[in-house]
Amino acid sequence: MEIKGQHIAVWFSCGAASAVAAKLTLLKYGNNNKISIVNNPIKEEHEDNQRFLKDVETWLDYPITFATRSKYPSQSCKDVWDTRKFMAGPHGAPCTVELKKGARQEWEEVHKPDHTVLGFTSEETHRADRFRLTERESLLTPLIEESYTKQMCFDTIISAGIEIPYVYKVGMPNANCIGCVKASSSTYWNLVRKEFPEVFEDRMEQSRRIGAKLVWYKGKRIYLDELPKNAKGHSLKNYDFECGLFCEEKL
Fold this sequence. Notes:
Helices cover 42% and strands 14% of the residues. A five-stranded parallel beta sheet has the order 3-2-1-4-5. 42% of the residues are buried. The chain has a domain at 7-168: HUPs (Rossmann fold, 3-Layer(aba) Sandwich), CATH 3.40.50.620. It has ten helices and nine strands. By secondary structure, it is an alpha/beta fold. A hairpin with a 3-residue loop joins strand 8 and strand 9.
């Protein structure tokens, strides 16, 4: 697609795929279009995500700006859950609706981009198609067009000399918030309990108080405080939950 004189918004999530998507967008469209690279900062993400953001910004040689939700100045998922008295369900989580999608829509009202770029990889063509159908027809997918897989995105980042976000190193499947409530795997939650025990305790208390059974165990939903420490569920390698501009969980 030939695009000239347009405004393209690239949504950077502090993950490898969206970083490479930003790079490809600048290379392909940067000379003839206005490019905005935008991040939604979330309080519950690991602090190393912002280090990664700065490293990617240097690699891109291009500024990354921020979009926040005016309704939630704390940018905290915990505040959203307490306000909504709801943490997650079959169709997603209110934190994404408010702090990602809501923040994007506020930003778009002001800046009015013509096209949106998300970090959909070649394995996620179905997600891109669904986004075009339900959200925005003018979606650009540079990773899919160039046949980039998730692994290729990691390889590109590492080859550029950029250290991947800390959460990847401890086995998390993406750079979402620690203790992402869209996850329901016993394996995931016991990894959170091992690597980030304070976060696990925090989610355990809040989910019990709100009445949210966040984890699947032996064919049913249970509270985190009911999860055995040795329980194993879906392999994280095959478990994909994403905190993008729309919210979904795949089991």
